[in-house]
């Protein structure tokens, strides 16, 4: 955050992104995706690893996609999700306090 | 987050910290502190720069202190606040997704 005070727009954007990340299930999803070297994962894989239902995982993936933190890719009948590293780099920059 | 999936304790801790950071006024406070090279700041200085009342700023500083993101220091009648860089480094590590 060493480029000076945030603008109103930046405050609104980062508030929304940090709120999205702060949800425990979404933190767990991100942690599972990162734990697999950020390779694309399916809803089924995440549901199995985290121990939650597929609709619950889908709901949270939709929130993360809506915030621009992950991307959804469809190949035939298989849907996978990957993280968008730029968005996370942006959030890390906001938390750069030294 | 490349050390593998988060534990339940880590999920709870980071969920609390990201929720704390996600508040727009607290993001603005952190941005003001970082914008001044992370030098200690008083409640008065922050209230003036952000354009909010001292009680409002104090309330949010208390939340940030309670989460271990900033530290409060008292010297005589002057109270200042500084960021705790280790806590922010920890949050940046959680957001390391590439």
UniProtKB/TrEMBL annotation, chains A, B:
Coiled coil: none annotated. Transmembrane segments: none annotated. The keyword Mitochondrion does not apply. Keywords: DNA-binding, Transcription, Transcription regulation. PROSITE patterns: HTH_ARSR_2. GO terms for molecular function: DNA binding; DNA-binding transcription factor activity. InterPro entries: ArsR-like_HTH, HTH_ArsR_DNA-bd_dom, HTH_CRP, HTH_MetalResp_TranReg, WH-like_DNA-bd_sf, WH_DNA-bd_sf. The keyword Lipid metabolism does not apply. This is ArsR family transcriptional regulator. It comes from Corynebacterium humireducens NBRC 106098 = DSM 45392.
């Amino acid at each position: 955050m060493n480029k000076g005070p945030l603008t109103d727009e930046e405050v609104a954007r980062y508030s929304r992104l940090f709120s999205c990340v702060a949800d425990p299930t979404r933190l767990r999803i991100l942690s599972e995706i990162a734990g697999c070297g950020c390779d694309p994962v399916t809803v089924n894989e995440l549901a199995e690893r985290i121990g939650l239902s597929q609709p619950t995982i889908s709901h949270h993936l939709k929130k993360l996609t809506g915030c621009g933190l992950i991307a959804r890719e469809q190949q035939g009948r298989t849907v996978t999700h990957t993280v968008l590293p730029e968005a996370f780099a942006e959030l890390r920059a906001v938390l750069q306090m030294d």
